[in-house]
Write a structure and sequence with these properties.
The protein is an alpha/beta fold and 309 residues long. The protein folds into two domains: 3-91, Up-down Bundle (Four Helix Bundle (Hemerythrin (Met), subunit A)); 106-295, Rossmann fold. Helix content is 52%, strand content 12%. An eight-stranded mixed β-sheet has the order 3-2-4-1-5-6-7-8, sandwiched between helices. The chain is elongated.
Length: 309
């Protein structure tokens, strides 16, 4: 990312994570101004970190790092934030991996519950790939929601990407088959396939996803090349069970976290990284196309604790 682009993304990221960083910042300030760092204040901070959805493991390792050689000493809020950022970055080490396009057409299956921002994320990814000069096709595989089909068509127009769509209620596996066949014939770079996010009947959802993958492989034997799970940061701890479920049903290969600007619970990303070690490819902090960017551990760690770049 060019320097000015990086600065403008940093501004959006730190602005987007304001709720999370303010919640952590005031907890830190309260503790360090009231008393010296002792067992009690460390425990209080650990509780605040758990409350911020960072996860028990990360909260414990931060507490350990803070108490090392600092007991009974005064400590400035920024020192605590620096330790916090360092430990968060450590917890995220290895998950900030870019999405590598390794085949042509490269097939991306996008999964996630309704309302997670799935269709919008597909549109933003299409815009990103088009800006890089790649040809993109969108497949409206969430055939149960007319609104999702319409939304994808709008993104297709915006990004000048062909959209394969059928009437609401059509078979999503058949639609995926047609999309991949067409993309292959036209030598397109990337196909992004939307899917339904209904959770009322998990067995049905599982069967549907399995069928989509099975049918895709009749056209392209190693498809899908990536299975991206879109998660909404505002659901907090619920994101953990979503990853668990979709990992079983769809063989998730990477995560996209949206709506980090709408929540004080951005720490859930750290808990997910610690538990599942799945690559986090992109994060979103707003509605605009440029508000979805590749995830970098250092930037996220510093922004979520409210440190300068």
């Amino acid at each position: 990312m060019a320097e000015t682009e990086h600065q403008s993304w940093w501004k959006r990221l730190s602005g987007g994570l304001k709720r999370s960083s303010s919640a952590l910042g005031s907890a830190i300030a309260d503790l360090v101004t009231k008393r010296k760092l002792d067992a009690g204040s460390i425990e209080d901070l650990e509780n605040e970190l758990i409350r911020a959805d960072l996860g028990v493991e990360t909260a414990a390792s931060i507490s350990q790092a803070l108490s090392a050689g600092r007991f009974e000493k005064s400590i400035a809020p920024d020192e605590v934030k620096a330790v916090l950022a360092g430990e968060i970055e450590k917890a995220l080490a290895g998950v900030d991996q870019p999405l590598e396009i390794t085949a042509r057409p490269f097939v991306i299956l996008v999964v996630g519950v309704n309302g997670s921002g799935k269709t919008t994320t597909i549109g933003k990814l299409a815009a990103k790939f088009r800006a890089e000069g790649k040809s993109v096709m969108l497949a409206a595989g969430d055939t149960f929601r007319a609104a999702a089909i319409d939304q994808l068509k709008i993104w297709g127009e915006r990004t000048t990407s062909p959209v394969v769509a059928r009437e609401p209620g059509a078979d999503p596996a058949g639609l995926a088959f047609d999309a991949l066949t067409q993309a292959k014939a036209e030598s397109l770079d990337i196909v992004i396939v939307d899917t339904a996010g209904r959770l009322q009947n998990k067995t049905e959802l599982m069967d549907e996803l399995e069928k989509i993958v099975r049918v895709m492989r009749k056209v392209i034997p190693d498809a899908p090349h990536a299975v991206l799970l879109v998660l909404d940061a505002t659901v907090g701890q619920n994101a953990l069970s979503q990853v668990e479920m979709f990992q079983k049903t769809a063989g998730v290969t990477g995560l996209v976290m949206t709506k980090l600007d709408g929540s004080a619970r951005g720490g859930i990303l750290v808990a997910l990284a610690t538990k599942f070690h799945l690559p986090v490819h992109f994060i979103g902090v707003g509605e605009g196309v440029d508000d979805l960017q590749p995830f970098t551990a250092r930037d996220f760690a510093r922004a979520i604790v409210g440190l300068e770049e």
